[in-house]
Design brief:
By secondary structure, the chain is α/β, with parallel strands linked by helices. It has a single domain, classed as Vaccinia Virus protein VP39 (Rossmann fold). Helices cover 43% and strands 21% of the residues. It contains eight helices and seven strands. Strands 3-2-1-4-5-7-6 form a seven-stranded mixed β-sheet, with helices on both faces. β2, α5 (86-98) and β3 (106-110) form a beta-alpha-beta unit. α2 runs antiparallel to α5 (86-98).
């Protein structure tokens, strides 16, 4: 194991997940959902706390791992979460309740993000968290930046896509899409951004212009 891999493993092992997150993570494995790593979850909670988030939008509910992490950092926030799988959302709802999150703080929308996002209000969210169809990540980020308020942050999970994004020899559609995204975001003067290598990568984009 390389030095970097040891650092990433240490970062994940250092995180103590709540019982509710652990149960949601186990459910994710059963359902074949690639949930964010513990270190990424902890990082999203810190960002939610630092921004004082009150309105959070999530693209990709899964079994609730990322939603619980986000709300743990923003105990006064409301989460709106989109997913195509109603079965996953039913599991997520149960895990939110298990985590002590009142039902009124979570709004689950079942549908395709590409259909739902265009109908949502601009400049309305403190955090937009994206962990859904990787082939549509650029489209989702474009919507996310429209929906985030000035000063709001768009978070993109799995931004290094299994180590393939950093390897220019990897030219499949998903790796190329993520590579294009991180490159163009880094060059934009409408945002400030950072790419964290923890987990499978977390791209952080804060909107500084409306």
């Amino acid at each position: 194991m390389s030095e970097k891999e040891l650092n990433w493993k240490f970062s994940d092992d250092l995180v103590v997940e709540s019982d509710a997150v652990a149960r949601a993570r186990a459910q994710s494995l059963e359902l074949g959902i690639d949930a964010i790593s513990p270190a990424v979850g902890a990082q999203t909670a810190v960002l939610a706390a630092a921004t004082g988030a009150l309105n959070i939008l999530e693209v990709g509910t899964g079994a609730g791992v990322s939603g619980i992490w986000l709300l743990s950092g923003a105990p006064g926030a409301t989460l709106t979460s989109i997913d195509t799988e109603v079965d996953h959302q039913q599991h997520a709802r149960a895990h939110f309740l298990d985590a002590g999150i009142p039902a009124k703080r979570v709004r689950l929308i079942t549908g395709k993000a590409a259909d739902v996002l265009p109908r949502m209000n601009e400049n309305s969210y403190d955090i937009v968290f994206i962990d859904a169809d990787p082939q549509s990540v650029i489209e989702y980020v474009e919507h996310g930046l429209r929906l985030a308020r000035p000063g709001g942050t768009v978070l993109v999970a799995h931004a290094l896509w299994r180590g393939r994004v950093s390897d220019p020899a990897q030219r499949d559609d998903v790796a190329t899409g993520f590579r294009t995204l991180v490159t163009e975001i880094a060059a934009s003067n409408a945002v400030v951004s950072a790419l964290s290598p923890v987990g499978d990568g977390l791209l952080q984009i804060t909107k500084i212009r409306a």
